[in-house]
Amino acid sequence: MSVRVRIAPSPTGNLHMGTARTAVFNWLFARRHGGRFLLRIEDTDRERSRQAFTDSILTGLRWLGLDWDEEIVFQSRRSRDHQEAIATLLASGQAYRCYATEAELHAMREAQQAARQAPRYDNRHRHLSPRQVAAFRKEGRHAVVRFRIEDGQEILWQDMVRGPMRWQGADLGGDMVIARRAPADQIGEPLYNLAVVVDDMAMGITHVIRGEDHIANTAKQILLYNALGAPQPSFAHTPLILNKEGRKLSKRDGVTSIADFQALGYTAAAVSNYMCLLGWSPPKKLGERFGLGDAAAVFGFDRVNKAGARFDWDKLNWLNSQVLHAMDGATLRDALLPRWRQAGLDTNQPQAWQERLSALLGPSLVVLEDGVEQARPFLGTPELDDASRAQLQVEGCQAALGYVLQHRPRTFEMSAAKALLTAAAQAAGVRKGVVMKGVRAALLGCLQGPDLLLSWELLHGAGEDGPRLRSALG
RNA sequence: GCCCCCAUCGUCUAGAGGCCUAGGACACCUCCCUUUCACGGAGGCGGCAGGGGUUCGAAUCCCCUUGGGGGUACCA
Question: How far apart are CA A391 and CA A435, in angstroms?
Fold first, then answer.
């Protein structure tokens, strides 16, 4: 049977790290086995679901390169199937209506808590007599639908990450609600566990790959598969991504949405690479810098860790810088251009010139956004910083700059420029370092940056070196 | 509270009983390259949570302790 997996985010927030990493694992597994990677939007929580979040999820997945294979399934459009399944369970007696009011359930939980017991539904309406039911209905009570969960049973599955798993029915909290409260002659909106199982069945999902936080759901869902007469899929519960404090990464941890990373100037290559590294260890031959395609060729759950993995900015930064350093000028320029525009920098230079600038800046970038500040001295007239101003006041610096300006050749030539700096130092009677720093200050307005001669050459090409040297004098 | 899961350098990890004097990567430190900042290169620091077993032999298997995490919805 061919592999079919899915990622099933709910559009109640932007695509974030945890979901994306789960998507990565699903995608890798599908590609590794020549299977299909599907997408289902779980938008049954009407209160919290937003179209904008659906868009964010699709955009994010595409950006990462996680292409899905079939039409997107929207859970909200599958309510007929859900209702049918619930009706089936109701008809077979595996589910029943519970008329307990919220107040009654609340009181029940209070009592349990007071007695230091685990909160759970006490199955009080599991065996209602027809008379009791009639009484509740006459009262006008609404009802939820509950699925029977026998306390005595044991639920077993072989987890692709964790090995043999075992769960006691008694630890599942009593008969579970599968349909929201509704008038007693109707079936309310389906709840998560029911909808997931029905949809996974309909979509022919063979392997459910999701975060460790779903383990308890898996036990409940296996019961539903059985009740609905469907074979249960394989399960893989991946370790969670943890924040700095070692807790499950959540939206409250600041930068966690994929769009945030993109905005900061992280590349899809680095982000997807890093997500693979959180919890999965690639075989040695792959190294640790690789594309999704390379990873897909060797991916397996045998090398997925069980313990949660802390998110580490340093490592992501390093990966991203590696990606950026390896980019050629043309690619980098295309990536940088929108950011330059956004920052209001002068982008009127010829494309080739911008590409050379990008190539010059490349090795010092960690994120694309760094390319804005670092390009600033080249694009538009720079403001001299304090250190530069001070440098221009250094004994002999002005004389040296004057000499440089005077003897500046029409066409820039590397060795000639180098010789000119030496000559200027001699003429002004200062060390060469003074001249180099002085020229740098005059040209770029700051004392640090890429290679001086290459920077100069670039500015010369833009016709900027003369004016800048001149304005630094005087 | 109850249930479940997990545990190797600061972080991500390799490790399937002898190949381990525990390997790699990031971070950190030093040096080299460079008359700047980076890049790059070469070194260095640093770990099997603790205690019991099993075994000729344990980071690896078992138990306990401790620590951490997840779950406990008419959310997904």
Answer: 10
Q: What is the residue type of A311?
A: F
Residue A18 CA to nucleotide B49 C1', Å? Answer: 28
Round the CA-based radius of gyration of chain A to a whole number and report it. 32
| Strands A142-147 vs A207-211: parallel, antiparallel or unpaired | unpaired
**Range 119-178, chain A: CB under 7 Å to any strand B atom:** 119-121, 144, 162-163, 165-168, 171, 173, 177
Are A16 and A9 within 8 A, CB to CB?
Answer: no
Per-residue model confidence as pLDDT tens digits over A388-422: 999 999 999 999 999 999 998 889 999 999 999 99
Do residues A455 and A356 touch, judged by C-beta distance below 8 A? Answer: no
pLDDT tens-digit map of A7-23: 999 999 999 999 999 99
A55 CA → B2 C1’, Å: 40
Report the complex ipTM.
0.96
Order the strands of the A154-159 sheet from edge to edge: A163-168, A154-159, A234-238, A207-211
Distance A48 CA to B1 C1' (A): 31
Say whether pLDDT at A474 is over 90.
no
Cα separations (Å) of A432 from A385, A395, A400, A422? 21, 13, 9, 6
